[in-house]
Specification:
This protein is α/β, with parallel strands linked by helices. It folds into 7 domains: 172 residues, P-loop containing nucleotide triphosphate hydrolases (Rossmann fold, 3-Layer(aba) Sandwich), CATH 3.40.50; 170 residues, Rossmann fold (3-Layer(aba) Sandwich), CATH 3.40.50.300; 62 residues, no CATH class; 67 residues, no CATH class; 39 residues, no CATH class; 101 residues, no CATH class; 81 residues, no CATH class. It is 37% helix and 21% strand. It has an 8-stranded mixed sheet, with helices on both faces. A hairpin with a 5-residue loop joins strand 32 and strand 33. Helix 13 crosses helix 15, helix 17 packs across helix 18 and helix 17 crosses helix 20. The longest helix has 19 residues. The radius of gyration is 38 Å and the shape is elongated. It starts with 12 loop residues before the first helix and ends in an 18-residue tail after the last helix.
Length: 873
């Protein structure tokens, strides 16, 4: 075995081994560049007597490319062939043999092993690497391993990461901690204020870096594939001028291209432009400078729809530390951060655990397959939100994996089959239906596209209309994989053959993993429909919660948008690249991006359906009869101002059919009166359309009721709350008026004043006339109308000449409320507004007199208005 260069982790290997010998578990914290991923696993393998020779060590890595890279590096350092003593096992790719003792796996693979062997009888040690990333599988793995260790105390468990908050893990497991100090080389951190054009900013920084002869490779962190490709393009001229190679690195790239990106070159300098896939585990050799955009795309479930959506967010500081650490592997390095010191003060310290922000259906399925226990009481490392658990249980029940009506949380036969498949339960349910209906290969291909990556680069708007976007792809998949892309291009589907070839491999893996599941299907449509229709029925079986119904509208450019509403009420829009153009009912198999819509409540967003499948209405009747509900709805029609009754057929609460029926046959007089009163109470003026005096009467009663509550004036707008008695004594005044009527028009047939006067006691009406009069007599003898507004002083608008001789401001409501005087000029426009008439005559009138006398010389303007006679005209 070759002599390896010293790494910081080497200094604590003996301590880790000793801790495991005494406590059988340990939490290891080692900064980036310490070498934990490649040095610790073989050290444990070589430690005498630590792991029995008939047992193996499993190392869990969060990503497939990292698992392959770590396994290859360890095998290389040990001078062995990959797949011998050291191997890896990831979804759809296995490089192990009967001699493999050190196996690098992705997190989901551990769960598959636990189903087949709950005690991991052939495993002596499990290492959870990069636990700080807090993927859902890592959180689930640590919980399950804790339970396994309660039975198998001999099982060794190591949890390690570069930026781990060790105390929480140590407390959860009851495990001691070991810390490795320092990275291989120091990294200088620099903050750079980013420009508006991110690719241009990065291209400028790369140019400045590559002009320094001592620099080697540059690693750039960006949020997604699109920004990576834009930056690769922006670097083209600089790459030619300064002679370096450019490589993209993100999860959807074919494996060969990923390996090419992380492989070092002694002869040429490189710029690797990557997502956060390059943050951990991957050793990108030769990097001396990191340029960090500070952005990352995270999957997050939308609480309003229950759908996972990618959101671009600011990285947490622990991720920024991991990224910077990539520059300190071969010598001293630099990390250029595209944010300011001030920005850093507001950044989160740690990355939010994935379990708190994604669809939990696969995770809850794993928990149920493992223990059949209530997921709410499972011993989580960090318990996810209760609503997310409930949503996952709801989906699993709709997929037929769980029968909650029987009680308990035991899986059905379908659920057990789905748990054994290496894919999301949605795609597993599709495979079951596809196998039973003679379209096994086609559905497996569709499941591969949904689980991995679409091989169509950008679908054209000019595609011919279709019933299913996935079916069109499945039909050309094998041709594209063989580099025959003409047919795909002719129907508007420009394609990527390397991706298509990988999808065929995934399809074949899914077919092998599904096995014989035909008997678990819920329907047999083999003799009733075409292959394409049977394919669409299988898609429907996997997405029973994403059924959408057409709701057309016109956008601001008067172009028809294909709008739908999803069960649950989420509005979505069919993207232009979807060929499913005219279907009244669809299944949204893939949503990505948003469309902004301006509505009455402001600007809202609608999810964009990129891949859709048309669904026949009769399929819903056949497959989901329990989700249809027919009911009579009695409501107030705001457009026609009347109580109406309709027979409504709904599917998961979404109205599909409406038929008008007789209100008399389906609603009591009491309910109709209450409903009409509720509608009228929202706007009495609209309900009664009173004349000016009637409207004033409503306002007078409302104001006086507020000023003098002892009069016990009725609240004309009050409505009996739901659930309270509606006996004659408890019925409100407004409801009494509405008795026997169904429309506002019927309300208007009676005089509003007569209704009100007949509803008030004599002393109440007298008090209204006395304390809140309709008009007030002023010194000129005129009776001037008073304007009442609830919550504001009553207004008396009167010409100045009509108030000559009046000293004080008039009052109402037993003298408690002063009128607001609008003192009018001869043109009947306010010259002054006041509630202090005495002050006006003394202080303001001389100035007003001077101005108005010049404008209206024919009108009297006495110097002493209090001794002058008021003038009516």
């Amino acid at each position: 075995m070759r002599q390896l260069p010293h790494l910081p982790i080497d200094d604590v290997l003996e301590e880790v081994i000793s801790t495991l010998e005494h406590h059988r578990q340990v939490v290891l914290q080692a900064p980036p560049g310490a070498g934990k991923s490649t040095r610790l696993p073989p050290a444990l393998l070589d430690a005498p007597g630590l792991v029995p020779e008939d047992q193996k060590i499993l190392v869990l890595e969060p990503r497939r490319v990292a698992a392959r890279a770590v396994a290859s590096r360890i095998a290389q350092e040990r001078g062995q062939k990959l797949g011998g003593e050291v191997g890896y096992s990831v979804r759809f790719d296995n490089r192990t043999s009967k001699n493999t003792r050190l196996e690098i796996i992705t997190e989901g693979m551990l769960l598959r092993r636990l189903y087949s062997d709950p005690l991991l009888s052939d495993v002596g040690c499990v290492i959870l690497d990069e636990f700080h990333e807090r993927s859902v599988h890592a959180d689930l793995s640590i919980a399950m391993l804790k339970e396994v260790r309660s039975v198998r105390e001999d099982l060794l468990l190591v949890v390690m990461s570069a930026t781990l908050q060790a105390d929480a893990v140590s407390s959860y497991l009851g495990a001691p901690e070991v810390t490795s100090q320092g990275r291989a080389y120091p990294v200088e951190i620099e903050h750079v204020k980013p420009g508006e054009d991110l690719p241009a900013t990065i291209a400028k920084l790369v140019r400045q870096t590559m002009q320094r002869p001592e620099e080697r490779d540059v690693l750039v962190f960006l949020p997604g594939a699109r920004s990576i490709q834009e930056t690769i393009g922006a670097l083209s001229s600089t790459a030619r001028e300064l002679d370096f190679d450019r490589f993209p690195l993100y999860g959807a790239l074919p494996l060969k291209e990923q390996i090419r990106a992380i492989s070092s070159s002694k002869d040429r300098r490189r710029v690797i432009v990557a997502t956060n896939i390059a943050e951990t585990s991957l050793t990108v050799e030769g990097v001396t400078t990191v340029i960090d955009s500070g952005l990352v795309k995270q999957m997050r479930v939308d609480p309003s729809s229950g759908l996972n959506r990618l959101e671009e967010v600011r990285v947490a500081l622990d991720s920024a530390t991991q990224r910077a650490g990539r520059a300190g592997r071969v010598r001293e390095g630099r990390a250029l951060r595209l944010w300011t010191h001030v920005d850093e003060q507001f950044m989160s310290a740690t990355t939010e655990a994935e379990i708190n922000r994604v669809d939990l259906a696969p995770v809850i399925l794993d928990v149920l397959a493992w223990s059949s226990a209530d997921p709410h009481s499972f011993d989580w490392f960090e318990e996810p939100p209760a609503r997310a658990i409930d949503a996952a249980l709801g989906l699993l029940e709709r997929l037929g994996a769980l029968d909650m009506e029987r009680g308990g949380f035991a899986l059905t036969e379908v659920g057990e089959a789905l748990a054994a498949m290496p894919t999301h339960p949605r795609q597993g349910r599709m495979l079951i239906e596809g196998a039973a209906n003679g379209v096994r290969h086609e559905v497996a291909a569709a499941a591969a596209i949904l689980a991995e990556e679409d091989f169509v680069s950008r679908a054209s708007r000019e595609q011919p209309p279709a019933n299913c976007d996935l079916w069109a792809r499945v039909e050309v998949l094998e041709d594209v994989a063989r580099d025959r892309t003409h047919r795909a291009r002719s129907i508007g589907l420009p394609s990527k053959p390397p991706v298509a070839r990988r999808l065929l491999d995934v399809r074949d893996q899914l077919l092998r993993s599904a096995g014989d599941v035909e008997s678990l299907a819920t329907t047999d449509a083999l003799g009733e429909h075409s292959r394409e229709a049977r394919f669409r029925r299988a898609i429907l079986a996997g997405y029973p919660d994403r059924i959408c119904f057409r709701r057309d509208r016109l956008d601001s450019r008067d172009q028809e948008m294909r709008d739908y509403v999803m069960v649950g009420g989420e509005p979505v829009t069919l993207a232009y690249e979807s060929a499913v153009r005219d279907a009244p009912v669809i299944v949204a198999t893939h949503l990505a991006g948003e469309r902004y819509v301006r509505g009455g409540s402001g600007v809202n967003t609608r999810g964009l359906v990129r891949l859709a499948t048309a669904v026949e209405r009769e399929w819903l009747d056949e497959l989901f009869p329990e989700r249809f509900v027919e009911a009579i709805e009695v409501s107030f029609d705001e457009e026609r101002d009347r109580v109406r009754a309709e027979r409504v057929l709904t599917f998961d609460g979404i109205a599909l059919e409406r038929e008008t029926v007789s209100v008399k046959d389906f609603a009591s007089s009491e309910d109709v009166a209450r409903m009409l009163a509720e509608a009228a109470s929202r706007d009495l003026t609209r309900a009664f359309q009173p004349d000016k005096d009637g409207a004033q009467l409503l306002d007078r009663i409302a104001c006086l009721a507020e000023w003098m509550p002892d009069l016990e004036l009725p609240d004309l707008r009050a409505v009996i709350p739901e659930g309270e008695s509606r006996g004659e004594r408890g019925r409100t005044l407004l409801e009494q008026w509405c008795w026997g009527k169904r429309t506002f028009a019927e309300l208007r047939r009676g005089s509003l004043e007569k209704l009100i006067r007949g509803s008030l006691r004599h002393e109440q009406w007298s008090a209204l006339e006395r304390y809140a009069p309709a008009r007030l007599q002023v010194p000129s003898g005129s009776h001037i109308r008073i304007d009442y507004t609830l919550g504001e002083p009553p207004v008396l608008a009167v010409r100045i000449q009509e108030l000559f001789g009046m000293v004080k401001t008039p009052t109402i409501a037993r003298g408690e409320v002063a009128l607001m005087l609008h003192l009018l000029a001869p043109n009947y426009r306010p010259a002054q507004v006041t509630q202090d008439l005495e002050s006006f005559w003394e202080n303001t009138y001389p100035e007003v007199r001077k101005e108005l006398r010049a404008r209206y010389p024919k009108h009297p303007w006495p110097e002493d208005p209090l001794s002058a006679s008021a003038i009516r005209k």
